[in-house]
Amino acid sequence: MRTKxxxxxxxxxxxxxxxxxxxxxxxxxxxTLATExxxxxxxATALDARVDMAIIHNTGDTGNxxxxxxxxxxxxxxxxxxxxxxxxxxxxxxxxFGGEIASSGHKRNDPRIAVLESYMGKWNANQTVMGSMYDExxxxxxxxxxxxxxxxxxVRPGSSDEQVATAKKTLELLKAGLNTATSGWSDEKAEKFGxxxxxxxxNGVSSNSRYAKVSSGGPLTEALAFLVYNNxxxxxxxxxxxxxxxxxxxxxxxRRRKEESVxxxxxxxxxxxSL
Length: 275
Fold this sequence. Notes:
The protein has 11 helices and no strands.
Protein backbone atom coordinates (compact mmCIF):
# COMPACT_ATOMS: atom_id res chain seq x y z
CA MET A 1 0.00 0.00 0.00
CA ARG A 2 2.81 2.37 0.87
CA THR A 3 4.58 1.50 -2.39
CA LYS A 4 1.36 2.13 -4.29
CA UNK A 5 1.05 5.55 -2.68
CA UNK A 6 4.56 6.45 -3.78
CA UNK A 7 3.80 5.25 -7.31
CA UNK A 8 0.59 7.30 -7.46
CA UNK A 9 2.43 10.35 -6.17
CA UNK A 10 5.14 9.95 -8.82
CA UNK A 11 2.62 9.53 -11.64
CA UNK A 12 0.58 12.47 -10.39
CA UNK A 13 3.65 14.69 -10.34
CA UNK A 14 4.48 13.74 -13.92
CA UNK A 15 0.91 14.41 -15.04
CA UNK A 16 0.93 17.80 -13.33
CA UNK A 17 4.20 18.78 -14.96
CA UNK A 18 2.89 17.66 -18.34
CA UNK A 19 -0.33 19.64 -17.92
CA UNK A 20 1.54 22.76 -16.88
CA UNK A 21 3.58 22.60 -20.08
CA UNK A 22 0.39 22.73 -22.17
CA UNK A 23 -1.57 25.95 -21.86
CA UNK A 24 -4.86 24.27 -22.85
CA UNK A 25 -4.68 21.50 -20.22
CA UNK A 26 -5.68 22.11 -16.58
CA UNK A 27 -4.15 20.29 -13.61
CA UNK A 28 -6.95 21.32 -11.23
CA UNK A 29 -8.23 17.76 -10.96
CA UNK A 30 -4.90 16.76 -9.40
CA UNK A 31 -5.13 19.31 -6.57
CA THR A 32 -6.43 16.77 -4.04
CA LEU A 33 -3.96 14.06 -4.98
CA ALA A 34 -1.44 14.92 -2.24
CA THR A 35 -4.10 14.57 0.45
CA GLU A 36 -5.32 11.28 -0.96
CA UNK A 37 -1.78 9.91 -1.18
CA UNK A 38 -1.13 10.86 2.46
CA UNK A 39 -4.37 9.15 3.48
CA UNK A 40 -3.20 6.02 1.71
CA UNK A 41 0.13 6.19 3.56
CA UNK A 42 -1.62 6.70 6.89
CA UNK A 43 -3.73 3.61 6.36
CA ALA A 44 -0.62 1.66 5.34
CA THR A 45 0.99 2.65 8.65
CA ALA A 46 -2.17 1.61 10.51
CA LEU A 47 -2.19 -1.77 8.77
CA ASP A 48 1.48 -2.22 9.67
CA ALA A 49 0.62 -1.38 13.29
CA ARG A 50 -2.17 -3.96 13.36
CA VAL A 51 0.17 -6.68 12.12
CA ASP A 52 2.72 -5.77 14.80
CA MET A 53 0.02 -5.79 17.48
CA ALA A 54 -1.03 -9.30 16.48
CA ILE A 55 2.57 -10.53 16.64
CA ILE A 56 3.29 -8.92 20.02
CA HIS A 57 0.03 -10.19 21.54
CA ASN A 58 0.89 -13.71 20.45
CA THR A 59 4.53 -13.67 21.56
CA GLY A 60 5.08 -16.05 24.46
CA ASP A 61 7.62 -16.01 27.28
CA THR A 62 10.12 -17.65 24.93
CA GLY A 63 9.98 -14.65 22.61
CA ASN A 64 8.53 -16.78 19.81
CA UNK A 65 5.28 -16.52 17.87
CA UNK A 66 3.35 -19.76 17.16
CA UNK A 67 4.27 -21.05 13.71
CA UNK A 68 0.87 -22.66 13.08
CA UNK A 69 -2.71 -21.56 13.51
CA UNK A 70 -4.27 -18.11 13.25
CA UNK A 71 -2.89 -15.07 15.03
CA UNK A 72 -5.52 -13.04 16.84
CA UNK A 73 -5.71 -10.28 19.42
CA UNK A 74 -8.30 -8.25 21.29
CA UNK A 75 -8.20 -4.49 21.64
CA UNK A 76 -9.68 -3.10 24.89
CA UNK A 77 -12.64 -0.83 24.21
CA UNK A 78 -13.73 0.08 20.71
CA UNK A 79 -11.44 -1.06 17.90
CA UNK A 80 -10.99 2.06 15.79
CA UNK A 81 -10.22 2.26 12.09
CA UNK A 82 -8.67 5.70 12.53
CA UNK A 83 -4.92 5.47 11.73
CA UNK A 84 -3.91 7.59 14.73
CA UNK A 85 -6.05 5.53 17.11
CA UNK A 86 -4.54 2.31 15.76
CA UNK A 87 -1.03 3.65 16.41
CA UNK A 88 -2.09 4.56 19.94
CA UNK A 89 -3.32 0.99 20.41
CA UNK A 90 0.04 -0.31 19.22
CA UNK A 91 1.87 1.92 21.70
CA UNK A 92 -0.32 0.58 24.49
CA UNK A 93 0.44 -2.97 23.37
CA UNK A 94 4.21 -2.38 23.37
CA UNK A 95 3.91 -0.77 26.81
CA UNK A 96 2.00 -3.78 28.14
CA PHE A 97 4.62 -6.11 26.69
CA GLY A 98 7.41 -4.12 28.34
CA GLY A 99 5.48 -4.10 31.60
CA GLU A 100 5.24 -7.89 31.52
CA ILE A 101 9.01 -8.13 31.08
CA ALA A 102 9.64 -5.79 34.01
CA SER A 103 7.03 -7.23 36.37
CA SER A 104 8.10 -10.85 35.94
CA GLY A 105 11.33 -10.18 37.80
CA HIS A 106 14.82 -10.59 36.38
CA LYS A 107 14.60 -13.53 34.04
CA ARG A 108 18.15 -14.34 32.99
CA ASN A 109 18.74 -13.87 29.26
CA ASP A 110 15.07 -13.03 28.71
CA PRO A 111 14.35 -13.63 24.99
CA ARG A 112 11.50 -11.12 25.05
CA ILE A 113 14.02 -8.28 25.19
CA ALA A 114 14.98 -9.00 21.58
CA VAL A 115 11.30 -8.71 20.61
CA LEU A 116 11.01 -5.41 22.48
CA GLU A 117 14.16 -4.14 20.77
CA SER A 118 12.73 -4.99 17.36
CA TYR A 119 9.52 -3.01 17.76
CA MET A 120 11.08 -0.19 19.75
CA GLY A 121 13.52 0.24 16.88
CA LYS A 122 10.77 0.20 14.27
CA TRP A 123 8.48 2.76 15.93
CA ASN A 124 10.97 4.81 17.96
CA ALA A 125 10.50 8.03 16.01
CA ASN A 126 6.69 7.85 16.07
CA GLN A 127 5.39 10.26 18.72
CA THR A 128 1.94 8.68 18.78
CA VAL A 129 3.23 5.16 19.40
CA MET A 130 5.91 6.16 21.89
CA GLY A 131 3.58 8.52 23.74
CA SER A 132 1.03 5.75 24.25
CA MET A 133 3.73 3.27 25.22
CA TYR A 134 5.04 5.45 28.05
CA ASP A 135 1.49 6.36 29.07
CA GLU A 136 0.90 2.64 29.56
CA UNK A 137 4.17 2.04 31.41
CA UNK A 138 3.84 5.09 33.61
CA UNK A 139 6.71 6.33 35.73
CA UNK A 140 7.06 3.12 37.74
CA UNK A 141 7.01 0.92 34.66
CA UNK A 142 9.48 3.13 32.82
CA UNK A 143 12.08 2.86 35.57
CA UNK A 144 11.37 -0.82 36.23
CA UNK A 145 11.73 -1.77 32.55
CA UNK A 146 14.91 0.28 32.17
CA UNK A 147 16.33 -1.41 35.27
CA UNK A 148 15.36 -4.89 34.08
CA UNK A 149 16.89 -4.40 30.64
CA UNK A 150 19.98 -2.84 32.23
CA UNK A 151 20.58 -6.00 34.24
CA UNK A 152 21.03 -7.86 30.95
CA UNK A 153 23.81 -5.58 29.70
CA UNK A 154 26.42 -7.20 31.94
CA VAL A 155 28.07 -10.46 30.95
CA ARG A 156 26.47 -13.23 33.01
CA PRO A 157 26.70 -17.03 32.93
CA GLY A 158 24.97 -18.33 29.84
CA SER A 159 24.61 -14.94 28.16
CA SER A 160 25.97 -14.50 24.66
CA ASP A 161 27.63 -11.44 23.18
CA GLU A 162 24.58 -11.05 20.97
CA GLN A 163 22.21 -10.99 23.95
CA VAL A 164 24.31 -8.39 25.74
CA ALA A 165 24.47 -6.25 22.59
CA THR A 166 20.70 -6.51 22.16
CA ALA A 167 20.11 -5.40 25.75
CA LYS A 168 22.42 -2.40 25.33
CA LYS A 169 20.67 -1.39 22.12
CA THR A 170 17.28 -1.77 23.82
CA LEU A 171 18.41 0.52 26.63
CA GLU A 172 19.33 3.22 24.13
CA LEU A 173 15.97 2.76 22.39
CA LEU A 174 14.12 3.13 25.70
CA LYS A 175 15.89 6.43 26.26
CA ALA A 176 15.30 7.62 22.69
CA GLY A 177 11.68 6.49 22.84
CA LEU A 178 11.11 8.48 26.03
CA ASN A 179 12.62 11.50 24.31
CA THR A 180 10.20 11.04 21.41
CA ALA A 181 7.24 10.64 23.77
CA THR A 182 8.01 13.68 25.92
CA SER A 183 8.62 15.81 22.83
CA GLY A 184 5.13 14.96 21.60
CA TRP A 185 3.39 15.61 24.93
CA SER A 186 2.17 18.95 26.20
CA ASP A 187 4.65 20.86 28.34
CA GLU A 188 2.51 20.28 31.42
CA LYS A 189 2.31 16.53 30.88
CA ALA A 190 6.02 16.16 30.14
CA GLU A 191 6.98 18.18 33.23
CA LYS A 192 4.67 16.13 35.46
CA PHE A 193 6.14 12.87 34.14
CA GLY A 194 9.64 14.13 34.91
CA UNK A 195 8.67 15.11 38.46
CA UNK A 196 6.97 11.79 39.12
CA UNK A 197 9.94 9.90 37.70
CA UNK A 198 12.16 11.55 40.32
CA UNK A 199 9.71 10.72 43.11
CA UNK A 200 9.53 7.05 42.13
CA UNK A 201 13.31 6.76 41.80
CA UNK A 202 13.95 8.27 45.22
CA ASN A 203 10.99 6.91 47.18
CA GLY A 204 10.44 3.59 45.38
CA VAL A 205 7.30 2.17 43.79
CA SER A 206 4.00 1.99 45.64
CA SER A 207 3.52 -0.91 48.06
CA ASN A 208 1.02 -2.70 45.80
CA SER A 209 2.90 -2.06 42.56
CA ARG A 210 3.30 -4.86 40.04
CA TYR A 211 6.94 -3.78 39.81
CA ALA A 212 7.73 -4.44 43.47
CA LYS A 213 10.12 -7.27 42.54
CA VAL A 214 12.33 -4.88 40.60
CA SER A 215 12.21 -2.13 43.20
CA SER A 216 13.08 -4.54 46.03
CA GLY A 217 16.33 -5.39 44.28
CA GLY A 218 17.72 -1.91 44.87
CA PRO A 219 17.02 1.74 44.09
CA LEU A 220 15.73 2.76 40.69
CA THR A 221 18.05 5.75 40.58
CA GLU A 222 20.47 3.99 38.22
CA ALA A 223 17.71 3.82 35.62
CA LEU A 224 16.78 7.44 36.28
CA ALA A 225 20.37 8.56 35.82
CA PHE A 226 20.58 6.71 32.53
CA LEU A 227 17.39 8.27 31.19
CA VAL A 228 17.98 11.83 32.37
CA TYR A 229 21.69 12.52 32.85
CA ASN A 230 23.31 14.48 30.02
CA ASN A 231 20.19 14.04 27.87
CA UNK A 232 19.83 16.90 25.39
CA UNK A 233 17.21 15.21 23.21
CA UNK A 234 14.32 15.01 25.67
CA UNK A 235 11.62 17.63 26.03
CA UNK A 236 12.83 20.68 27.93
CA UNK A 237 9.72 20.52 30.11
CA UNK A 238 10.46 16.89 30.98
CA UNK A 239 14.03 17.72 32.01
CA UNK A 240 12.76 20.72 34.00
CA UNK A 241 10.32 18.46 35.82
CA UNK A 242 13.03 15.92 36.56
CA UNK A 243 15.20 18.69 38.01
CA UNK A 244 12.46 20.02 40.27
CA UNK A 245 12.59 19.03 43.97
CA UNK A 246 10.44 16.01 44.76
CA UNK A 247 7.79 15.76 47.43
CA UNK A 248 10.45 15.00 50.03
CA UNK A 249 11.17 17.76 52.53
CA UNK A 250 13.41 20.14 50.62
CA UNK A 251 16.65 19.68 52.57
CA UNK A 252 16.19 15.92 52.75
CA UNK A 253 15.33 15.78 49.06
CA UNK A 254 18.52 17.61 48.09
CA ARG A 255 20.64 15.37 50.30
CA ARG A 256 19.05 12.15 49.03
CA ARG A 257 19.32 13.14 45.38
CA LYS A 258 22.95 14.15 45.81
CA GLU A 259 23.72 10.75 47.32
CA GLU A 260 21.71 8.79 44.78
CA SER A 261 22.99 10.68 41.72
CA VAL A 262 26.41 9.06 42.03
CA UNK A 263 25.04 5.55 42.59
CA UNK A 264 24.96 4.73 38.92
CA UNK A 265 25.10 1.03 38.22
CA UNK A 266 28.14 -0.08 36.26
CA UNK A 267 25.89 -1.98 33.84
CA UNK A 268 24.66 1.32 32.41
CA UNK A 269 28.20 2.59 31.78
CA UNK A 270 27.21 6.21 32.41
CA UNK A 271 29.76 8.61 34.00
CA UNK A 272 28.76 10.17 37.31
CA UNK A 273 27.80 13.86 37.09
CA SER A 274 29.97 16.40 38.89
CA LEU A 275 28.56 17.42 42.23
